[in-house]
Amino acid sequence: MSKLTLKKITTKNFNEVVKLTNTLTDHQKKCVAPNIASLAQAYVNKKRAWPRAIYLGNKPIGFIMLALWDDDIPKEDWPAYYLWRFMIAKDYQQKGYGSKVLDIIKEKCLKDGIKTFYTSCDMQGDQPYKFYINYGFIDTGIKDDDEQILKMYL
Ligand SMILES: CC(C)(COP(=O)(O)OP(=O)(O)OC[C@H]1O[C@@H](n2cnc3c(N)ncnc32)[C@H](O)[C@@H]1OP(=O)(O)O)[C@@H](O)C(=O)NCCC(=O)NCCS
C-alpha cells in the first residue's frame, strides 16, 4: 500500500494542489476555502501558516494547513495548533486517509510540545463535524463566524 506523507508546496506541485479543490462537491466547497486562497493566506502569514500537500505515494490527494498559533485560543490551552484548512480530494475520501493525516499531525503536535489541537467546522450537513468528533475532538460549545470550535488535548 502506498505511503501517506506531507510535502511542502513548491513550484512543481503548486498547480496540482490548487486543482484538488475542483474535485469537491458544491457543498464541500462551502466547508473549506479554495486551496489557492489558503496558499495566498500562507504567503501573507509566513511565520504562522504551515501548509502541506498530502501525498499518497507520488500523488497529491489533499491539502492541510495549520496555524502554529492563534491569539483567539484561550491562554490556558497554549501552546496550541489550529487546524486551519483540511481537504481530501473527492475520490480519496471515506477511505481512512483523513484520519491518518490527523494521526501524522498529532505526532507533530506531540513532538513540538503542543498542549491542545484546535479546529473549527461548518455545521451544515453531517460532515466534517461527525468526522472530527469520531476522531476524538470535543465540542467547546463556542461558535465563531458560524463555525463550531472543537479541540483535543494531547
Ligand atoms: C473531512 C475530510 C477531510 C475527511 O477526510 P476522509 O479521508 O474522507 O476521512 P476518513 O476516510 O478518514 O473518514 C471519513 C469517514 O469515512 C469512514 N471510513 C474510514 N475508512 C473507511 C473505509 N476504508 N471505508 C469506508 N469508510 C471509511 C470513517 O469512519 C469516517 O466516518 P465518520 O465521518 O463518520 O467519522 C474530507 O471529507 C473532506 O475533504 N471534506 C471536504 C472538505 C472539508 O469539509 N474539510 C474540513 C474543513 S473543516
Please give a structural write-up.
The chain has helices at residues 14-19, 26-31, 35-44, 97-111, 129-135; strands spanning 4-7, 49-56, 59-67, 80-88, 116-122, 138-144, 147-153. It is 29% helix and 33% strand. The chain has 154 residues and is an alpha+beta fold. A 7-stranded mixed beta sheet has the order 1-2-3-4-5-7-6. The longest helix is centred in the last third of the chain and has 15 residues, at 97-111. Residues 24, 28, 31-32, 86-88, 93-99, 121, 127-128, 130-131, 134 line the site of coenzyme A. Coenzyme A binds next to helix 2, strand 4, helix 4 and helix 5.
Summarize the structure.
The protein is of the alpha+beta class. The protein has helices at residues 14-19, 26-31, 35-44, 97-111, 129-135; strands at residues 4-7, 49-56, 59-67, 80-88, 116-122, 138-144, 147-153.
Tally the beta strands: 7
Discrete helix count: 5
Q: From the 3D structure, determine the CATH topology.
A: Aminopeptidase
In which range does the helix fraction lie? 25-40%
Q: Unreliable runs, pLDDT <50, ≥5 residues?
A: none
Number of domains: 1
Q: What is the rounded distance between the termini?
A: 29 Å
- Report strand %: 25-35%
Tell me the strand order in the biggest sheet. 1-2-3-4-5-7-6
Give the oligomeric state of the chains in this entry, treating copies of one chain as homo and distinct chains as hetero.
single chain
Reading the helices and strands in chain order gives EHHHEEEHEHEE
The radius of gyration is 15 Å
- State the name of the first-level CATH class: Alpha Beta
Q: Shape, please?
A: globular
Structural class by helix and strand composition: alpha+beta
Within CATH, the superfamily carries the name: Gcn5-related N-acetyltransferase (GNAT)
Largest sheet: 7 strands, mixed
